[in-house]
Amino acid sequence: MALQGDHRARLPHLQRPLYQEAEPISSKPDIPQQNQLPNTMAERRIQAEQPREAKVHTETLPRPLERYDDFLGQFTAMGQLPPPILENIIAKEQAVTSPRFLRFTCTQCAIDESTQKSTGLPLAAIWHPLADICPGEDPIPILNKIPFRCNRCLAFVSPHFRFVEGGRKCICNICGLVQDSPEEYFNDRNNKPELWAGTYEFIAPEDYSNRPPMAPLFFFCIDISANSISLGLPQQILTSIKGVLDYVSFPERCSIGVMTFDTSMQFYKIGSTGEVSEILVTDVDDPFIPESVAGLTYNVAEQREQLDGLLDRLLAWDFTQPPKVNLSAGAVADAMKNYLLKGRGGRVLIFTSQLGTVGKGKLTNRVDPKLFNTDKEKTMYAPLENYVTLAQECTSEDICIDIFLCSGQYADAPSLAALCSQTGGDLHYYPNFNVGFDGERMYYQIFRTLTRTQGFQAVMRARCSNGIAIDQYIGKFKRKGPVEMELACIDSDKTIVIMLKHDSKLQEDIDLHVQCAMLYTSQYGQRLIRIFNGVMKSTKMIPNIFKGGDADAIANVVARQSAYSIYEEAVGTVREKWHASMITMLTIHRMTVGDGEVNKILVPETLRMVPLYSNTAMKLPAFAVSGVPIDARLFSVHALLGMNIRQTRMHFYPSIYSLHDISVQPQQPGTLNNAEFLILPNLVPCTLQYIQSNGVYLLFNGEVMLLYIGRNADQEFLQNVFGVPQFDELSENPELWALNDYGNDESAKVLAIIDEVRKRSPSAYPSLHWLFEGKGDDFILRRFMVEDVTSGEISYSDYLLRIHKIVLNKIAERRG
């Protein structure tokens, strides 16, 4: 939420930080083996607090602990480094697209490819086409006619077209062609948004699409096998659908259907008198569904009574003697594609609880323990070819697939992920699904899927000005020809990485342009084309490249490059390449600034978080060395491929808020500042060293919210906030785990803080989990302690020391 306030310049600071003053480091810091890791939280804290050799002052390490509670005014994209991704701003476009929609890894790039590669920084743009616009920002202007396009490269007119000869001629900023201007452009240019707005859109001509605009349709496919019934999965899904119906976007245009499956498929239709008829399809290899999609779906606004009646009947349905095995997600998706949604399109949500071993696309266990930690390990991460083909066919039919995988056993996530990613959908993973722990999270993810901004039947592409070119796209889409992407659905959580490359040497200090275009169907039924215009500068000065670097964008791009590489290279190789690029950056930077003090760890000020993100990313399931189940690894890879920058920022370094001392913190957390913006509590580093036994903390990683209560938490605080003064009484009675207003200042503030953190979530509204020190498994807490040692990965402080030593050695080698 962005609010009005004083404008403050957001130019990058140029001074170099001093992270440590210490003796030269050891090149081989101790790494505990898995069986040497401490088993209890107390032991882990003791380990974290144990004094090290004089190496690094951990309290001064670079960390993203800014709360961004103050509103920092308006930001204009022209010529400025984008503000930190969590900062509160109002973006005002001045001929350049807002960084909410298009954000570069570097605002300045090298004049040639070799120089750019020598910096270790990727050259890329992150395109977020349906990013939410904050209050106070101007809406995207809609043109009342089709804008002019370049006759040669077909780029759309933008504020960067140059008009010459009194406006009678124009020069394309993408290809440089000089051409005649349409008459209206040299007679009246001031009232044309395409000549001053960085982002604009217009209604697409009819000949831009061979299908009519698609109305939103969501079809829920629910596993009712014995395993699913025992987990309580059908009841949770049906209850969640009922809870979301009042909030569905554009309910007058949106339709919802429900089917179930085990070893057969069951479709349901409710009659005018409320009776439910079941259509049983037993031939799953060649299914016949004797009903149209219109007869099996219900408009949320006009047929709400029937839809509620159907859900109520299914909730009361007696699923007796369910089989132990079930259809594969591929069989369900294939049936929906060929026999129900063909020529119609829609979003299909498949909920499955185990490996689908029946029907088309049946799955088998492809895990081979002998392949782990070898070059052939990647073969287990490759999806089955028939799933890739099915996904491409679904996209061609405008069908998007979401899969909710609720299995603690192997279920071939690589193939399921391909079915989702190629259609623009999501894979949601719930290992060992538990209704009590995961039910709320599932509800909020269903809620997000049905209520967020989304477009359908999308075709996307980018164009670059002379001297640079598109290298590749990374994201969740189907490739359509050499330069275009196709998606059945694009939503406000998805981004596309556009990897750029030099195709010739550039002149110094010139503008480099990237124009992105997306044809899509909006939720209100219009076929629109949205245009985005981004600009970089060329430079031959390496320090300028570092000063224009965006750490959040770089971390997002490198993570997604690396995740994409998991399908082609061994995990160890992927990790080595990531570290090598960062070491290259630090080496070139130190050599450029010419600082000879070996006890300094020098990192460019704008990129000071890159080493931290590099270390914490290696602890994600996608990149962890060993001990990660295939499904968990591929879910992590799939999630990274489409993440927006806010999500990766929280994913790499969660926020830990100190609640127990809000009454004595400066600026009074839980209250509003002068700009009517809620002030959040102090942030705590993500290491057990800072988690105190007398503390109460709120932890959030962009997906899960955790309320952690220390054993020695102040009794008065517990009484005020939770209504119970004793730690043991609160921890042993789950019925007391509720957030209520107890009519005092601390209670009101804590409720306001939790609500505000949830509102700032970059994706689904997060579920809240409770954890008490010493009570049960603290695995979920350790997920947030990203600075600490994990099995196979060293701590953040030791990591800095190790790469510092490597950098010094490399410089010594270069200088001979």
UniProtKB/TrEMBL annotation:
Residues 455-534 form the Sec23/Sec24 beta-sandwich domain. Residues 550-648 form the Sec23/Sec24 helical domain. Residues 1-35 are annotated as: Disordered. SUPFAM superfamilies: beta-sandwich domain of Sec23/24, C-terminal, gelsolin-like domain of Sec23/24, Helical domain of Sec23/24, vWA-like, Zn-finger domain of Sec23/24. InterPro entries: ADF-H/Gelsolin-like_dom_sf, Beta-sandwich_Sec23_24, Gelsolin-like_dom, Gelsolin-like_dom_sf, Sec23/24_helical_dom, Sec23/24_helical_dom_sf, Sec23/24_trunk_dom, SEC23_SEC24_subfamily. One of its GO terms (biological process) is COPII-coated vesicle cargo loading. The keyword Protein transport applies. Residues 679-731 form the Gelsolin-like domain. Gene3D superfamilies: beta-sandwich domain of Sec23/24 (2.60.40.1670), Sec23/Sec24 helical domain (1.20.120.730), Severin (3.40.20.10), von Willebrand factor, type A domain (3.40.50.410), Zn-finger domain of Sec23/24 (2.30.30.380). Residues 147-185 form the Zinc finger Sec23/Sec24-type domain. It comes from the Eukaryota. One of its GO terms (cellular component) is endoplasmic reticulum exit site. GO terms for molecular function: SNARE binding; zinc ion binding. Keywords: Protein transport, Transport. Residues 213-448 form the Sec23/Sec24 trunk domain. Belongs to the SEC23/SEC24 family. SEC24 subfamily. This is Uncharacterized protein.
